[in-house]
Specification:
single chain, elongated, mainly alpha
Amino acid sequence: MSLLARSAAPLRQVARARAAPVRSVHTGEYKHIPFDYDKKTTFGVKVVSYFVFGFSIPFVATYYQLSKSSGAA
């Protein structure tokens, strides 16, 4: 048995001893997304409004800064 194989064997035994037991807390259906998307139209409206609001922030800020300095027409 090589020195490398002998040194790795105790590490594997320690790793097995430290492994936490697997527990299942969830009962029923488990969803990975933290919001409800069952109503497709409501979900679509919320997503579109979120993206439009987020995309428009830089343009609104630019317009505000330019109008504040009287650079906008």
